[in-house]
Amino acid sequence: MSKRAIPLVDLSKFVKGNADERAAFVHELGTAFHEIGFVGVVNHGVPKQLIQDFYAAAKTFFAFPEEVKRKYEVAGLAGQRGYTSFGKEHAKQSLVADLKEFFQIGQEVTDGDVTVVDDYPPNVEVDEVPDFPALGRQLYKAFEASGAHLLKAIALFLDLDEGYFDAKIHNGNSILRAIHYPPITQEPASAIRAEQHEDINLITLLVGASAGGLEVLDMNNEWLAVVPESDEIVINVGDMLQRLTNNYLKSTTHRVVNPPRAEWHLPRLSIPFFLHPRSEMDLSGLANCVTAERPMAYPPITAGAYLSERLREIGLKK
């Protein structure tokens, strides 16, 4: 068996385990996030059937002609809800658009939380496949629950109170994104489906894509292929968590490379959940992550201001 590119952890050991199992999980997850920024998670609590059903609905949606999909592209939302057509988004250092289109589902506030309820536009319904956004909302909640457990473990690893993130992510600005990389029909301008980048958010939860291609950049500056097993979710640190921990936890550069030419005809479907806090969260470096060897690396900023800045850099926001 080939060596794994990223460590594998079992979330049930934290959620249902005894004190020793919980402590071991916290250490494994934290060490992985400090050293490589990526980890595979099993027993994550996201139902397999729900993932499969959402995949099937997404596949149906992306198979529609362009004019049908474009009905669900909402101007002025910076791609934060509904459909974003092919070639709109690029990595912040790249001028070449990524070879993808996507559909996004966001937070729905159901508890009368007045401080954020006006921040979030409504989700986009799809007449032709009503199950697509409906299943997406269920999957969103399942990812949100798993992500909350992972952030409790991260808080403990950082010597914070276990509930440090709870209020900060309650009704947070998270996004579920279904990404479709269509078949490659001609020599691409860039040999890559998604150029190297780091994620913006706290953590990303990614269910196994329908085809390979995900690669992460390790500490030796070498690209490693990440091939999740079935029922495994890949989790990575985003720039907000890296910023909060003053670079102690690592937001790792990653990309999606094109398949071998013989597989150009195969599309790729990928479902990441970008876990964001509420916009007012302060991302200033935690005091216990600032040392003489690691002085404060970033000026203070809120999560909302940082997100706006980054959406402009990647071409989604004017």
Characterization of this structure:
The chain is α+β, with helices and mostly antiparallel strands and 318 residues long. The protein has 9 helices and 12 strands. The strands form 2 sheets. It has an 8-stranded mixed β-sheet with strand order 1-2-10-7-12-5-4-3. A 4-stranded antiparallel β-sheet has the order 6-11-8-9, with no helix packed on it. Strand 8 and strand 9 (223-225) form a beta hairpin. Helix 2 (19-35) packs across helix 6 and helix 3 packs across helix 6 (131-157). The chain starts with 7 loop residues before the first strand and ends in a 5-residue tail after the last helix.
Q: How many helices does DSSP assign?
A: 9
- What is the averaged pLDDT score? 88
List low-pLDDT spans: none
Write down the secondary-structure element order. Answer: EHHEHHEEHHHEEEEEEHEEH
Rg on CA atoms, Å: 19 Å
Biggest beta sheet summary = 8 strands, mixed
Structural class: alpha+beta
Helix content: 25-40%
Total strands: 12
Widest beta sheet: strand line-up: 1-2-10-7-12-5-4-3
Strand content: 15-25%
Span between N and C termini? 47 Å
**Could you say which overall geometry the principal axes of the C-alpha atoms support?**
globular
